[in-house]
Amino acid sequence: MIKKEVEIKNRTGLHTRPAAMLVKLASKFKSDFFIEKNGVEVNGKSIIGVMSLAAEQGSKLILKFIGEDEDEAAKAIIELFESGFGEIEELKKDENRDGSQNN
């Protein structure tokens, strides 16, 4: 079993799009995947479960991976969280675009 704490970095939290990305990625692995927030644990392969966490920016989550490909699953899913589900990079691009227009 692998257990890792992550923080929601993207501004809008774990809303529909990132939740769907997470579930889709998690479903590619055979390992079981669970997410815990404030003592409530849900199946990380369930869109309803993930959405029910209502995890906003700054939320701390505990990810648990159990199974034969847990190392690969943990690596991929933790990278997704660390990237802010792609929204942090999009925000930086928007800020750069806006900044360059002001000059």
From TrEMBL:
Protein name: Phosphocarrier protein
CDD domains: PTS-HPr_like
Family affiliation: Belongs to the HPr family.
GO cellular component: cytoplasm
Keyword list, A-Z: Cytoplasm, Phosphotransferase system
Gene3D superfamilies the record matches: HPr-like (3.30.1340.10)
HPr domain: residues covered: 1-88
Organism per entry: Candidatus Kryptonium thompsonii
Location of the protein in the cell: Cytoplasm
InterPro entries: HPr, HPr-like, HPr-like_sf, PTS_HPr_His_P_site, PTS_HPr_Ser_P_site
